[in-house]
Design brief:
The protein has 340 residues and is α/β, with parallel strands linked by helices. 43% of the residues lie in helices and 8% in strands. The protein has a 5-stranded parallel beta sheet, sandwiched between helices. Helix 2 packs parallel to helix 12 (302-325). It is globular.
Length: 340
């Protein structure tokens, strides 16, 4: 038997995508910082509530991957749609969904986006064009392709952004979707969030082709690798891919090389990687710290940055307070929104 391959993270963690970055204004840097901080603080609070027993079931945190969804969201325009898997809280917040409603859904309360009946993996907002987190691995890819088909059918120039991970990239329905999307030139951007370990196995052990940007090659779908820890690189790649789709050229694949700091879910001790590896990524590549350093270099004061963090913490604390005191759904809700 062949010797096991090296850790995917050790092989890839220093890769930086194609090196293209967007030029951010001071306002864009501040916006990116605030949006990523909101996701980071929200997820930290969700982890605390889970530990207290206030959140039950599954809970997959997005800590470390914030630059991906924030950078992509900066490239979108009203009318574009977003759909993702079950590591979805960050996507909801980036789309503009109310932190109170998201946190209330996590705790199973009436004020949640699914009235407390969906939980972490099943929230939607038609108002914000967020078409859900989905608990079945890879299921959102065919649905996101359907959203793109609807846009093509209606003759608008909206683009569907479908997020999925390196683990889901090996699902069969992903390739069926790729085939249809290219065949019909659908306006679909497929964002593969490669956080190196899927549910707990490094990509080098689970994927024969670990360059996920090439996964559409047999369907003639262009793709590229992106430094998913740099919000500017994500924005630049997002602009390029979305412009390709709006021009009627068909789908585009973006492999975001990112990293999750926590385990796959709250119940995962993540013993398949070392603490030193995680700390090295935190120290060298943290997406929030990169923006913070650039702002300090641009003469934004430490006090102003602390004020932004304080404001974000206040929003998150208010959401947590609401989520713990909002009433639970009435028992009669078990019979609503059910097709017979």
């Amino acid at each position: 038997m062949a010797a096991p391959k090296k850790s995917a993270a050790k092989e890839q963690i220093e890769e930086k995508g194609n090196g293209e970055v967007a030029e951010f204004t001071r306002e864009q840097e501040l916006r990116a910082l605030r949006d990523m901080l909101l996701i980071r603080r929200f997820e930290e609070k969700a982890g605390q509530l889970y530990g207290m027993g206030a959140i039950g079931g599954f809970c997959h945190l997005y800590i470390g991957q914030e630059a991906v969804v924030v950078g992509m969201q900066m490239a979108l325009k009203p009318g574009d749609e977003v759909i993702t898997g079950y590591r979805d809280h960050g996507h909801m917040l980036a789309c503009g969904m109310d932190p109170k409603g998201v946190m209330a859904e996590l705790t199973g309360r009436r004020g949640g986006y699914s009235k407390g009946k969906g939980g972490s993996m099943h929230m939607f907002s038609m108002e914000k064009n967020f078409f859900g987190g989905h608990g079945i691995v890879g299921a959102q890819v065919s649905l996101g392709t359907g959203l793109a088909f609807a846009n093509r059918y209606r003759g608008n120039d909206s683009v569907s952004i479908t997020y999925f991970g390196d683990g889901a990239a090996n699902q069969g329905q992903v390739y069926e979707s790729f085939n249809m999307a290219e065949l019909w030139k659908l306006p679909a951007v497929y964002v593969i969030e490669n956080n190196r370990y899927a549910m707990g196995t490094s990509v080098s052990r689970a994927s024969a082709q670990a360059d996920f940007s090439k996964r559409g090659a047999s369907f003639n779908i262009p793709g590229e690798q992106v430094d998913g820890m740099d919000v500017r690189a994500v924005k630049a790649a997002g602009d390029k891919a979305i412009a390709w789709c709006r021009a009627g050229k068909g789908p585009y694949i973006l492999e975001m090389q990112t990293y999750r700091y926590r385990g796959h879910s709250m119940s995962d001790p993540a013993k398949y990687r070392t603490r030193e590896e995680v700390e090295k990524v935190r120290h060298d590549q943290d997406p929030i710290e990169q923006v913070r350093k650039r702002l300090l270099a641009a003469k934004v004061s430490e006090d102003e940055l602390k004020k932004i963090d304080a404001e974000v913490r206040e929003i998150v604390n208010a959401a947590a307070d609401f989520a713990q005191h909002d009433p639970e759904p009435d028992a009669s809700e078990l019979y609503t929104d059910v097709y017979r």
